[in-house]
Amino acid sequence: MDKIETLINWIKESKRIVFFGGAGVSTESGLKDFRSVDGLYNEKYDYPPEEILSHSFFMDKTDEFYKFYKDKLDTRKFRPNITHIVLSELEKKGILSSVITQNIDGFHQDAGSKKVLELHGSIKRNYCMDCGKFYDDKYVFESKGIPYCECGGLIKPDVVLYEEGLDNNITTEAIHEIANADLLIVGGTSLNVYPAASYLGFFRGKHMVLINRDKTPYDNHCDLVINDSIGKVFEKIKEEII
């Protein structure tokens, strides 16, 4: 039996699946990730992307932040792919408890998933730092220069920048979901981003499966490792289960 068939059998046997995903889930929609050879971190800018996407840079050089943000993080022309869609279908069947994602594109919700824990926030939500009013991604990406609220306050994307902490309520719920899953599917992530990657240590269920093109620091902790395209794996899941 090949590895994908083993995963499909485990899915059929499971009652509470949790999916933990990273950038590799969305790159198959056409988005660039951050850390790969042709990712955003290897492109040339006046400032390193890690610096641009920091809280202090946002506050000190807001105009430069938004030039990069609007140029590189506007995902509106992209769509959810097979992985997002199949995860939504597994949730509808009542066997997928939640999606925990490190991505900020909102594709899981676009595909129909209801319980999505966004560890790093979402570009689809933006808020005024003065009055708290929320704005959608269209307002921010189509604004000229720095987006401001109607009250005059600076608008900030509801994403976790470097130097900022994760939302405690979301991380607590994510850990609870992982701890209570019988099958944990980890996909499209290098597992090099902390503290998010450390949450896998709370898993106490039957099987942990890792789907990623490249090796990760967590391979030896998994019951099954599939080094392949996550879209190819989920296409097979769709054929057998959905």
Please provide a written account of the structure.
With 242 residues, the protein is an alpha/beta fold. The protein has a domain at 1-31 and 80-120 and 165-242: TPP-binding domain (Rossmann fold, 3-Layer(aba) Sandwich). The chain has helices at residues 3-13, 23-27, 49-52, 55-60, 62-72, 82-92, 107-110, 137-141, 168-179, 230-241, and strands at residues 17-21, 96-101, 116-118, 121-128, 134-135, 155-159, 183-187, 207-211, 224-226. It has a six-stranded parallel β-sheet with strand order 3-2-1-7-8-9, sandwiched between helices. The two termini are 20 Å apart.
Descriptive keywords:
242 residues; six-stranded parallel sheet; three-stranded antiparallel sheet; 9 strands
Brief overview, please?
With 242 residues, the protein is an alpha/beta fold. It has a domain at 1-31 and 80-120 and 165-242: TPP-binding domain (Rossmann fold, 3-Layer(aba) Sandwich), CATH 3.40.50.1220.
> Based on helices, strands and strand pairing, what is the structural class?
alpha/beta
Alpha carbon gyration radius = 18 Å
Unreliable parts: none
- The CATH topology of the domain at 1-31 and 80-120 and 165-242 is given as Rossmann fold
Gap from first CA to last CA: 20 Å
CATH class of the domain at 1-31 and 80-120 and 165-242: Alpha Beta
CATH homologous superfamily descriptor of the domain at 1-31 and 80-120 and 165-242: TPP-binding domain
**Side-by-side strand order of the widest sheet:** 3-2-1-7-8-9
Overall outline: elongated
- Topology as H/E string? HEHHHHHEHEEEHEHEEEH
The CATH architecture category of the domain at 1-31 and 80-120 and 165-242 equals 3-Layer(aba) Sandwich
Q: Helical element count?
A: 10
The number of E-state strands comes to 9
Proportion of residues in extended strands: 15-25%
Mean pLDDT: 93
Q: What share of the residues lie within helices? A: 25-40%
How is the biggest beta sheet arranged? 6 strands, parallel
